[in-house]
Queue: 4 jobs
Job 1
Amino acid sequence: MNLTILILGLLTAFGPLSIDMYLPALPGIAKDFAVPLASVQLSLASFLVGIALGQIFYGPITDRWGRKKPLYVGLITYALASFACASTFDVNGLIFYRFMQALGACAGMVITRAMVRDLYQSHESAKVFSLLMLIMGVAPILAPVMGGILTTAFGWRSIFWILTVISLMALFCVYKFLPETHKPDVKYGVKDIFRNYIGIFKDKNFTGYTLSMSLVYAGMFAYITGSPFVFIDHYGLTPAQYAWVFGANACGLITFSQINGRILRKHPPEKILVRALPFVTIFGVMILIVGLTNGPIWAMCGCLFLIISNMGLIAPNTSACALAHQKKHAGSASALMGTIQFAVAGIISSLVSHFHNGTILTMTAIMCICGVLSYLAYLLLVKRRAL
């Protein structure tokens, strides 16, 4: 693995690090600010909204101005916002600075994909994306563990100090070692941006697969938003113990995504989705029953493991199917897909915070609803067209 790929991997990890690393600290932040947990959970929702808004702009900006200049802006924004998160003494400030942090994190997420396409041919780029996906899978395992350890030893602010340092290190590496891979294109105008996005929306398969995937993704973010309360406050786990539970679910996601790669050798992604998508409804009903009956921790952990692991079969295949007919505008389609994903996730995350009532039912009910709607989106927008 060469230095360029290592730097791209670091940039790819900013999203999961920013989301997962501070999850064990949410109850502690609420106590420190003397506010309800739901107020602190809005800082996660604001981050998701920032991710959703930022992605749709970075793609066209990098096509117009090159890759490295927007990346500098993004990393500097991220570093300043992380510093502000570590320094704030007000929950509203944390919510705003997390939004700004997300706008910075977008740069690494979007520009990394563009630079891989610039540097490598299709066969080689597939291998590089596989390595980057592995990093995306490992980061959610390590991030909450690191966050739990830092919170216990040094307090929650240390998490954002570490993120500040990491972003400054990434900025130095990008400046010193990462090549510019795309020259500015002065001919690329605003009309081209809107024309491309309108054309993508006309592809009903893209819309159907993207909505189905986004709702599954939103169910996972309902879990991310609600699980600190469920496991730390309700079930009484320590932040470190919660981090291990979170990591175990991430391991399930990685394992099933690797199984998916093997299944794809014999079966197309559409066939895998026909088998996997009904289970989002089945598992959703199961976790709703746990919420309604105030079930034991082992039942909650089992249901969550099944739901998160099943995403390893759904996420890569819905992505492939959605982009199958967007080869000419794959970059814009990828950015639009990411925007829709995080917009839906941000809305769902806000709902978990808004309807939080001190029980585990809020998280489980919203996860169930997301699962049912995801399968319905597939049945109504995709499968019906294939019949």
Note: The chain has a mean pLDDT of 83.
Job 2
Amino acid sequence: MSDHHPDLTYRLRQQAILSEFGVEALRGDDVDGLLQRATELCAEGMGAEFCKALEHLHDEDMLLVRAGVGWGPNVVGSARVGADLASPAGFALKTGRPVISNHLENEARFRTPQIMAEHGIRRAINVLIENREGAFGVLEVDDTREGMFTEADIAFMQGFANLLGGAIERQRTEGLLRQALTRQDLLVREMSHRVKNSLAIVASLLALQARNADAGPVRDALIDARTRVEAIAGVHDQLWRQGDTTPGEIDLGQFLETLAANLQGSAPSHRILCAAEPLRVSADRAIPMGLMVNELVTNAIKYAYPDRTGEVRVGAACAGGMLVLDVSDDGVGLPADFDIGRASRSLGMRVITNLARQLDARVATPRGQGARFRIEIPLEA
């Protein structure tokens, strides 16, 4: 420290600078930017001409100047300093102890590194940058002028080094976590792709059995089973395709539109319309929703229109903290005494009531032209 600095004011200023950098270190996500900012603030806090942050290159056992202030061209990003005990920075790295050298020209412990000699450096102070992963490198302040670095300056610099070490470790950990999440997402997508393919094979086998079966209850049951399997396969198909979104979630609107299009393909004489708002839902909830829509549309195709042709509408929208699924037609309508809670003789209605129970949903059948099913499902938190 130079003699002309009033000690208390000087130290308070250093603490303010250190606190400022602490906030940046917590928020920063760019190692090079943080290293550069640390060298700027460290030089400012110590009234020094030069500062540099050096990273230890393990394979070469050298210290690379990653950031710095005051240095000439071609130093930051390319200059290297020996990491052995014969250089001040190397000594700090290898021993883990701070190094003060206020008279480099008379120093018997170390040689003066070339870049420091070229810049006329007369005094230097080095502290170790480390974290739980080990030593990252060294933070060094240098000056060409007479003066004295002191133990109090070490405390200031070590504060910067500790903040840097923690920030570097955090960023590396976050990077590894992002890689792990990306890998997990890829694995989930691959698994969904395989599940979808397996379900498609099952659906094809059921369709083959249905074609070979005589017309009647057995054939109808096989066709129903195929459409249910295809509805579940549709969820896994969406999970596989929507890889750039939240893992384990799908766009319900897009899923229902695809489901309606598939059902349209199996009932060409009907017109199946879908108007669904975009909404992200988990696959665990999308499957029962899709199965309910599948059952209701299939029932409408079978029973709503005696002449086997007509319109079936599917809707999905959010209202009052609920997701509302709506399936309606303009056909013969439901029996006057219809009660979904007592419609246990129908497998389709039993499926719907069981699925609604899974979702904590309420199923209503508002009266009007044709049949209408309104399913209110609580939105996920």
Note: Residues 151-212 form the longest helix (62 residues).
Job 3
Amino acid sequence: MGDNQINPRQGFELSVPMPPEAGSKCYDDDGRLKRTGTVWTASARIITAVIGSGVLSLAWATAQLGWVAGPAVMLMFSFVTYYTSTLLSACYRSGDPVTGKRNYTYTDAVRSNLGGFKVKVCGLVQYLNLLFGVAISYTIASSKSMVAIKRSNCFYKYGDKAPCHVNSNPYTIAFGVAEIIFSQIPDFDQLWWLSIVAAVMSFTYSSIGLGLGIAKIVETGTIRGSMTGIDTETEKIWRRFQAVGDIASAYSYSLVLIEIQDTLKSPPSEAKTMKKATLVSVSTTTLFYMLCGCMGYAAFGDSSPRNLLTGFGFFNPYWLIDIANAAIVIHLFGAYQVSVQPLYAFVEKTAKQKYPHSQFITKDIKFRIPIFGSYNLNLFRLVWRTSFVIVTTVISMILPFFNDFVGLLGALRFWPLTVYFPVEMYIAQERIPKWSTRWLCLQILSAACLIITIAVVAGSIAAVISDLKIYKPFKTSY
């Protein structure tokens, strides 16, 4: 790479000499082991990150917007997400798309293309969302699904009139313990199998929700809902804003896009492969979102539940609902890890750079695990990741209404990470002239998404204020 250089956008950067193996059959051009990711592994990771249990709220979101606006908003966000993701994927390498310097993380891409204060803003938004918007929300959603399984079996055994109240805290702790174990998987590229399992599970519960919706339509013989959705009272206007936020959050995966792209092999260029993976995954998720949202709305109309599976009752057919909720739990195990790996990597990389001679931080202890082979145990990784999972688990038990707060964080995340930074980085990298037609179109897109984000934030704040009125920490039961 040559001598140390000062880049006006990046500041001082220490160049690390490439090992002699760089660019050989076993190593990539940056000296790392050959990446092996393909369109399909990237698609599986994207689907794992995108299709979460939030898909089950799309029937409720469609009910707030109606038959016209509901599907239109889903299609709009799918297009925006696909387009801005292609812009972001073009920023994986700085300069030449084949031989340019790699940006290993989203923050690295912002540093290379924009620099300055924007790097800190990007890092703050990204890592706060990984902490609050992903880790805690996934923990809460998983515990709710485990509680739903327990309750459905209780109703089946004692009848639908039985109280069957279940405390969610033991299930929240169980999910946390499992994540402590999974969090010791060292690197992002070693999660490919977990991503595939999680993607299969997401299709499983989405398909069950879709199938039950179709069955209910056939049973009643009517397609419910209206063209404009619910009546426009003040409270319901806020709910419409929340619905738009639910849909926007359902498409958001930009905060891990660069990290996923960094697992891809080349040639062809990583950007080309990522564009194909983005098209496959966004098209697939949009199809599922449209089917689940529209069929759920057709089945329940304006009374569509926030979680589609709960609308079918807990006891008939209880076993199918149990399978769907179990699939949600398994999916969230994988989605949690795929989503928080960038945060893990950031903290560990920063610690190694600051304390390069610390044995606690840098030393790996090698030992063999029967069946699984050798494993490198790092004490800092063990302590830090375990502490992270414990903290997020405790917060999940303290704030049982956190899903509405996550809607607020999702809205705050959508515009900067999915739209603003990809647009600004692409303009900088491609040197698009200011006030040119292309520049104006990109800025109009960014401004329109900002306006939508502001409306969604307002609706989410109203929901959080409503939740705080009945808030009781550590006393969540269903």
Note: Residues 59 and 297 are 5 Å apart (CA to CA).
Job 4
Amino acid sequence: MRKELNQGLIDYLKASPTPFHACASLARQLEAAGYQRLDEREAWSTYPRGRYYITRNDSSIIAVQLGRHSPLETGLRLVGAHTDSPCLRVKPQPELQRQGFWQLGVEVYGGALLAPWFDRDLSLAGRVTFRHGGKVESQLIDFKQPIAIIPNLAIHLNRSANEGWNINAQSELPPILAQIAGDERADFRALLAEQLRREHDINADVVLDFELCFYDTQPAALIGLNGDFIAGARLDNLLSCYAGLQALLSTGEEENCVLVCTDHEEVGSSSACGADGPFLDQVLHRLLPEGDDFVRIMQKSLLVSADNAHGVHPNYADRHDDNHGPKLNAGPVIKINSNQRYATNSETAGFFRHLCFDVEVPVQSFVTRSDMGCGSTIGPITSSQLGVRTVDIGLPTFAMHSIRELAGSQDLSHLVKVLTAFYSSPELP
């Protein structure tokens, strides 16, 4: 099982260079498992039982199983994650021509580690909006091949590079795409129109706009002498999206289960399709009873917010609290913060720990050092939106927000196992 899950994650990461592609990949797997797509723009009937999924902005997705038991009796089992990762996004008018090179202007999305972006084989993917036959349409594209690079400056010209380097995102990050001779002018929209023809056989009248991200073409892989690790881009947080999906698809039809994977977590979640927006609340209100019954259902429900945790790095162990340094391949981590950066409380933590004990999955705890700031995730946001009890958890990783992150190869199966037990649990606290 571990080998198949790890390979499935590697395949999913390759198919998901952007949140749009990550969402489309999840939708394909849900449809293959019998989930029915619901369109938010259409009227919905009352669905006493069944399996459904809903997308918004092509980058957020909610899958819902309404099981045999009434949600008024047993509540909902929710797992939440996010589809976005820090990256370099192309600006609206990106063409730069300097010293005979064609470059693209980019802005940094989220809290990216910038240094690892240099000297990587980069490709480009995302969503393009265009006019075709008099109508406005959108399509996902993925160049797949390495088409760009951000070369480092030689150490001879930057002697202090190894002493700490303040990277200027405006001037030092534009990737190089090609050399241009003479008076030739770069036309990025023409390049996108050609990609639409090549990839989708679409002859666009004009490219109107786009949301595109550069990404590293090096595929994720099992690495280490004994294959102990998974290295790859976007482990934060596509690893949790994939684990949640596998658990959902392994669950029987008795319980009421929800998987919600939303965009824009890395920039605060405040959007129509983010966790701090109305997406999940609106979907649940359309599928569940209203008024007093809805509140009762929420109070009988539980959310597992799954987002990666900081594993204790052997070269930087002092960055962790001595008693709370999660180790790779030692199981999922319960994340706790007294200032509510995580939504975990003793009851929800205790229940998750109980599930881990029951299915013989190792479990760890994380509290950030008291003299350091603490990040957050969708847990507190969703909890405050719905009033649902929440536990924040995640798998330990290294190099979070780098272009290539590292996780333990045993931990994915641990997480899928305990999330499957959660979805199948007949009773919540």
Note: The first strand starts at residue 36 and ends at 37.
